[in-house]
Amino acid sequence: MIGDRQAQFQFYKLYSKAMYNISYRITNNEMDAEDVLQESFVSAFKNMNKYQGTASIGAWLKRIVINTAINTVKKRKVELLPIEEHDYFPELESTDDSELYLNVDKIRNAVQKLPDGYRLVFSLYLLEGYDHGEIASILEITESTSKSQYNRSKKKLKEILKEEVLYNG
């Protein structure tokens, strides 16, 4: 595929939408997501000879996109706050959420409102399937920081969603 423009175009058409969505979830910015997408495909085309076939080519490309998106967010100087080992985040009080009507758009919008650090860990853990050890390694933080950011993101997300229901019905 190196140098074969038609094959590159077909590869781009096949994966660009999914990779843009991943990039957008991590960067939370359309222009950054587009830049990440372009940079990722250029990198993939340049490094196609390094693809070893140990994972699907889509998974290989996804890893490039995620790493590029994370680097973009890191450039914004996202602060992931370390926590002390004794910090404890109890689960939110049990409430009757059966009345809480949510649709996909409301949830997507609420995730976009999360602070960068929360959204990044939330997206990597819940949406991209990384475990806290992998997230810690990728983001150069401790595993406990990853866990706390995830717990805080869930709490914040619930607050945002409840606000949306209260103010927007």
Polypeptide structure, described:
The chain is an all-alpha fold. The chain has two domains: 5-75, RNA polymerase sigma factor, region 2, helix turn helix motif (Rna Polymerase Sigma Factor, Chain: A, Orthogonal Bundle); 97-168, Arc Repressor Mutant, subunit A (Orthogonal Bundle), CATH 1.10.10. Helix content is 67%, strand content 0%. The protein contains seven helices and no strands. The radius of gyration is 18 Å and the shape is globular.
CATH domain fold name of the largest domain: Arc Repressor Mutant, subunit A
- Largest beta-sheet details: none
**How big a fraction of the residues is strand?**
under 5%
- Helix-strand pattern, N to C? HHHHHHH
Output the number of helix runs: 7
Q: So, the CATH homologous superfamily of the largest domain?
A: Winged helix-like DNA-binding domain superfamily/Winged helix DNA-binding domain
Question: Radius of gyration over alpha carbons?
Answer: 18 Å
Beginning-to-end CA distance, first to last residue: 51 Å
Mean pLDDT: 83
- In CATH terms, what is the architecture of the largest domain? Orthogonal Bundle
Shape: globular
Write the layout of secondary structure elements.
Blueprint (H helix, E strand, L loop, with lengths): L4 H23 L2 H17 L10 H19 L28 H9 L3 H12 L4 H8 L3 H26 L1
Key words describing this protein structure:
169 residues, 0% strand, mainly alpha, Rna Polymerase Sigma Factor, Chain: A, 2 domains, globular, Arc Repressor Mutant, subunit A, 67% helix
